[in-house]
Design brief:
heterodimer; A: 797 residues; alpha+beta; Aldehyde Oxidoreductase, domain 3; Aldehyde Oxidoreductase, domain 4; seven-stranded mixed sheet; five-stranded mixed sheet; 28 strands; 28% helix; B: 160 residues; Ubiquitin-like (UB roll); DNA polymerase, domain 1; 2 domains; 6 helices; 38% helix; globular
Chain lengths: 797, 160
């Protein structure tokens, strides 16, 4: 294995570092127009009238449209995950609002003009008359019987109610030495990739064919969705994903602006380009995370957790066709994470409010479950006066009990949680930290260490959706021996193209530089579901491995015939095929490739199928959608995890938290490329840290977004994010051919529990208890003051 | 309103007519097809549009094209071309590739130019200097560790 396991640089990096990456905004076509979208300034209102007259007359304007036009020309956009498939409510989402707006930023009209300036000017000339409706921005208030309703036909704001239950919970609570309750609140924030959303649609009237260049993670499902929405044949649509400037989940679904740009290109007969503005992204690109997590836990004096009741209220904003609400479902699915708590129940309400709709974001609800379980373990430890890590070690699923089925049906594949946590404690100096802490405390500095653990189910596979547990790939060898890999997975910067090239190069025994990976073109690539849930390498890579093996089988058959030996006696490395142990008997891989293509009827190849190409699909063997005897299904096939230790310093005068160290032991199974895996993990921790301390989508009581630019939605810079100390624990997945598990998402969840635990530890002299995020300086300072004054004693700050 | 400007872009004299509202970043991208300069926020926060103006880094979304008449502008394309020493890339870029100091690549051209300016001002920066030097450039992918490592390597190599 020359490449698998090596720290190979990203195969696109030399191009990208020179500014030669072509992103959607960089693609231009002759005579293209620019689209601008008019958005609602109100959080909840009826649309009374839209006057487009002045905009229509504005110089350079090609078309102005409203919801009425859209309803006539297109169908609703199919939901990426339809809540009705889970027994929930639903509503039709068109490209533009029809008669009612549900959040600030709802698209209500659109303009296409010759220039960007003309489009913006015309958009400003559109007069929309609204009638205010009462606003509800708090999920718990939205559940009250007298709350304003977003979708009156539902007669409730509860989008969905889910319940998971296992064991005898009441008995566990009756028998407990201690029972404790708490309420946690995670705040609203989002992914914010640096490249905004972007689309360039070109409907070619002569060919009657639509091409869409778009910053997406899932080109094939997008094409299918467009066909539905636009009522076109799928064959007449090509979706092309240029280089994507970060995605992190928000570019999975079909956005309203995607079919909208296509429609307007069709109506104007010219290409239409749309580049999202940052404020549009923060208003309407999709939000995440905001959930209330109430728990009641039963434990014994020795720290064993015997029962757990959890109530989750997910505030998913207004409903959109995006996949967002699914994150609250997954939060409940993952509980109780890596722990063996057989008596457990989870009750989930997913609630709509007049805020921006949720959309997928790295973590996808797993961060909420991780935060919840870390807080549960810390509370139990504090109550029974045990070490916080020791309580986790006591309650982990033991390594000899895999596959382990949780109450939701989540079937944990493999791992050694105890060892991961013990190892990270050793690496971080957990046992000796108290002395250092005391020494610094004597100098007036407040340093704290916290421990946390994230379980990150990957490769989600939801029934009756394009969120699926399989992938396809084609491996093709040209007559000159060049290798093309075409994949159904895509890379928005996550590096799977490099990992896949490594796998294929090793399987064929050719230099990495001869392998080209093509992704994100529906005309070229096998149908695939795209990039999300860390699935690209362990599913797309496995499909590529299968296809490469099939091609190599033919190559070796021809080589064996030439070298008068058996295929199993051959080795292929760096493009040279040799008889094992006989350095002088060899043939070049390239010569075999040429032979197969040009001499299919000659004696070394005449008895086999011509060509050196294979398309294979890989499916995960441990997903099941037929309910078991307890009614459970398993929607996730891969369960990577990370044990983490954080060291923080808190300035008690200002409430500023500095993350000094973050140490992890991470298991994503077999590591194909440590450089890429570590890069993903480091980036994920930065996002978790940003979400916990710096980023917030804040609304006022009228549903107005207060943090609509990067001036006030603050992302962490290089100053705030330390270099994470990453160690690997490789427990191979039994369900993938190379033992790979999902890698890429992990790292985003653990900062919530780990850093919160460290901050509490740093502030132990004050007795601060943390329940809510974000940990902004102001909020931390208030927690310290409240604890000093004895006014909270652990209550909310 | 339109105005005509003369300036030097990537070592080439250039005359262009621009709408007076046009931002430098849009001028470079739309009129000169220099798409290596990216636009991420248009509020001067993210740094993806960083270019060199008369030898110093600026955020091209905060400057009007009309205001740079008579100036010298260098973008990632021109800088890469001019900075090539032996290989195909500048040592800063080589170090970025070696350490995988980029993932999606959207912030990278701006980041590389900020690193260039940082090392120009301080050839042997401390880790804190590096982190402050690139604090005007947001990266949403890497968490910065690999970028810091790449800059440290360039500084170390240049001192040898």
């Amino acid at each position: 294995m020359a490449y698998i396991g090596s720290a190979v640089s990203g195969i696109l990096d030399t191009k990208l570092v020179a500014g030669k990456g072509q992103y959607t905004a960089d693609v231009s076509l002759p005579d293209m127009g620019y689209m601008a979208v008019v958005r609602s300034p109100y959080a909840h209102a009826r649309i009374i009238n839209i006057d487009t007259g002045a905009a229509q007359r504005h110089p350079g304007v090609r078309i102005v449209v409203t919801g009425a036009d859209i309803q006539q020309w297109s169908k609703p956009i199919p939901h990426t995950l339809n809540p009705s498939a889970f027994g929930g409510k639903t509503t039709d989402i068109y490209c533009l609002a029809i008669d009612r707006v549900h959040y600030v930023g709802t698209p209500v009209a659109a303009v296409v003009a010759d220039t960007r300036h003309a489009a913006t000017e015309a958009a400003n000339l559109i007069e929309v008359e609204y009638a205010d409706l009462p606003v509800v921005i708090d999920a718990e208030q939205a559940l009250e019987p007298d709350s304003p309703l977003l979708y009156p036909e539902w007669e409730t704001n509860e989008l969905m109610h889910v319940r998971f239950q296992g064991g005898d919970v009441e008995q566990a609570f009756a028998d407990a030495d201690h029972v404790l309750d708490d309420t946690l609140r995670l705040h609203r924030h989002t992914a914010t990739p640096l490249e905004p959303r972007a689309a360039l649609a070109h409907y070619d009237d002569r060919a009657e064919r639509l091409t869409l260049w778009v910053s997406t993670q899932a080109p094939h499902p997008l094409r299918t969705t467009l066909a539905n929405t636009l009522q076109m044949d799928e064959n007449d649509i090509q979706v092309i994903q240029p280089q994507v400037g970060g995605a992190f989940g928000v570019k999975i679904p079909t956005y309203q602006e995607d079919p909208l740009a296509c429609l307007l290109s069709k109506r104007t007969g010219k290409p239409v380009k749309w580049i999202e503005e940052r404020t549009e992204h923060l208003m309407a690109g999709g939000h995440a995370r905001e959930q209330t997590l109430k728990f009641s836990v039963a434990c014994q004096a020795d720290g064993s957790v015997t029962g757990l009741k959890v109530r989750i209220i997910g505030d998913v904003g207004a409903l959109a066709a995006l996949a967002g609400w699914g994150m609250s479902y997954v939060a409940s699915f993952v509980v109780p994470g890596p722990y063996k708590i057989p008596n457990c129940e989870v009750d989930l309400s997913i609630v709509v409010t007049n805020k921006g709709p949720w959309n997928a974001y790295r973590g996808f609800g797993k961060e909420a479950a991780s935060f919840l379980m870390d807080r549960v373990m810390d509370r139990v430890a504090d109550t029974v006066r045990m070490d916080r890590a020791a309580v986790r070690l006591k309650n982990f699923v033991p390594k000899d009990e895999f596959p382990y089925v949780q109450i939701s049906g989540a079937t944990l594949d493999s791992g050694d949680y105890v060892k991961a946590l013990q190892d990270v404690m050793d690496k971080a100096g957990y046992q000796t930290f108290a002395e250092e802490q005391q020494r610094l405390r004597d100098q007036g500095r407040h340093i704290g260490m916290g421990v946390g653990f994230e379980l990150t189910p990957e490769g989600g596979c939801i029934p009756d959706s394009f969120i699926g547990g399989y992938e396809g790939a084609t491996v093709r060898v040209s007559p000159s021996g060049q290798v093309t890999v075409l994949t159904g997975v895509t890379s928005p910067g996550s590096g799977n193209e490099t990992g896949i090239a490594q796998i294929v190069a090793d399987t064929l025994g050719v230099p990495l530089g001869t392998v080209r990976v093509i992704q994100g073109d529906t005309q070229a690539c096998p149908y695939g579901l795209g990039n999300w849930s860390s699935r690209s390498l362990f599913m797309g890579g496995s499909a590529s491995l299968y296809a490469a093996r099939e091609v190599q089988h033919k190559v070796l058959r021809v080589a064996a015939s030439m070298l008068e030996t058996a295929p199993e006696d051959l080795d292929c490395e760096q493009g040279r095929i040799r008889v094992k142990g006989q350095a002088d008997r060899e043939v070049a891989f390239n010569d075999i490739a040429e032979y197969v293509h040009k001499r299919a009827f000659d004696h070394h190849a005449f008895d086999m199928e011509p060509g050196l190409e294979s398309t294979r699909y890989f499916r995960m063997g441990n997903i099941h959608h037929v309910p078991d005897d307890k009614g459970r299904i398993n929607t996730y096939p891969s369960y990577p995890y990370a044990a983490c230790v954080a060291v923080v310093e808190v300035d008690v005068e200002t409430g500023v938290i500095t993350l000094l160290r973050y140490v992890t032991v991470h298991d994503c199974g077999t590591v194909i490329n440590p450089l890429l895996v570590e890069g993903q993990f480091q980036g994920a921790v930065a996002q978790g840290l940003g979400g916990l301390i710096y980023e917030q989508l804040s609304y006022d009581d009228n549903g107005q977004l207060q943090t609509g630019t990067f001036m006030d939605y603050t992302l962490p810079t290089a100053v705030e994010v330390p270099s994470v100390e990453i160690h690997h624990q490789e427990v191979p997945s039994p369900f993938t051919p190379l033992g790979t598990k999902g890698a890429g998402e992990s790292g985003v969840s653990s900062p919530f529990g780990t850093i919160v635990s460290a901050v509490e530890n740093a502030l132990a002299p004050f007795g601060v208890r943390i329940h809510d995020t974000p940990l902004t300086p102001q909020r931390v300072w208030r927690m310290i003051q409240a604890a000093k004054n004895g006014t909270n004693g652990g209550a909310d700050a | 309103m339109q105005t005509t400007i003369q300036l030097i872009v990537n070592n080439t004299p250039c005359e262009a007519t621009v709408d007076t509202r046009t931002l430098l970043v849009d001028f470079l991208r739309d009129q000169l097809d220099l798409t290596g300069t990216h636009l991420g926020c248009a509020t001067g926060n993210c740094g993806a549009c960083t270019v060199m103006l008369d030898g110093l880094t600026v955020k091209a979304c905060t400057i009007l094209a009309a205001d740079v008449a008579g100036s010298t502008v260098t973008t990632i394309e021109g800088w890469t071309q001019a900075a090539r020493q032996s290989g195909d890339l500048h040592p800063i870029q080589d170090a970025f590739v070696k350490h995988h100091a980029l993932q999606c690549g959207f912030c990278t051209p701006g980041m590389v130019l900020s690193v260039q300016q940082l090392l120009q001002e301080k050839s042997q920066p401390t880790e804190a200097d590096i982190r402050h030097g690139i604090a005007g450039n947001l990266c949403r992918c890497t968490g910065y560790a690999s970028i810091v490592k790449a800059v440290q390597e360039v500084a170390q190599t240049s001192s040898e």
